[in-house]
């Protein structure tokens, strides 16, 4: 795939070039090779096949490689595997790769395992060949094997193979080892693996190490690794740096960072860029960012976009449109503003024309929790969401996890002591104590990874509703 001269797919498909160039001598022209090959010289037959491959003669290349491979030339068998992977049949590709792999060819074993897994779905055979290649020193095979064990839920075996790959220089496996350690509550080990990858240029590792340091209240250390990740254009790191600048009152720097994150399509950062631009008096830029976030489905941005359109441009019709969009998503202020606007403009229906929130919405949108609670909690929420999203698990929204953590922090502040938080909250809110305890247990899991399995998406949705009900009963926003 992609190595045949003149092949239009050459740049689109990733298959290595045919092997054997290290044996080729410039003094050997085609005539010499042909004479030697016809006389039974196996290496000459192999090089003759490569000679024809370089000139685009597929049939001749295949013929001479088959002759050399049948006589035991492993490079020719490997090249035939490549040839059939692109130009022939899968069965033949597997046959030649297996022949080479059986002769201890590590690259052939890796390619064979990949085809067995991705084209045949033969997981047991693929795993055997990956293990063969990994034990022979293939970093690629060690990583692939680790991921297979992760998919099967065998964290210990996955960790061992990731460790082999990481120690051989695989930065992605170092990053993965950090998450495996974090999920088990081994934060020092997570720190070690993420730092190893981060200092070698892995942006995600630098970002997650920054979050871990923020979760451990090392703000200066966190900022340093966010900057390292942002240097590789990591949008999450840019967003974190925007928040840090905003907390220091440095609006211009905050704007620059939020806009860097916003240009990647992150709706929350588009909204934040809009807010900062409002503070800086740049209504045009604020409208741009609020508009993009609103179009992306963000109700808070839609509400503020509506306010901006009315206040700056006097555009009541467009303002009404965005209030309506936000109200449909459950934004209470947007619903109130829309009702007032309809009453003032004398629109038929008035307040009755205000849309009901979508039934699928669990309730009114929460405050922007990350701006009002301890940064440690925000970092824990982000780490949990990243840990679950890394291997295509059920996605959890960091903002939902932040709200759960922030709710517990908010509702327990008035307590004289925290010895029986669930009982106290149940008594003061009228909410069943079991529901409050469920909220508290999920909160504990997020703060102390490894103490219990990660919450499922359904569990998070359920607990989020408990959190909102609890706040409402206690008269808290």
UniProtKB/TrEMBL annotation:
Top-level taxon: Bacteria
Pfam family, one: Sel1
Gene3D superfamilies (alphabetical): Tetratricopeptide repeat domain
Region (Disordered): 347-367
Name the record gives this protein: Sel1 repeat family protein
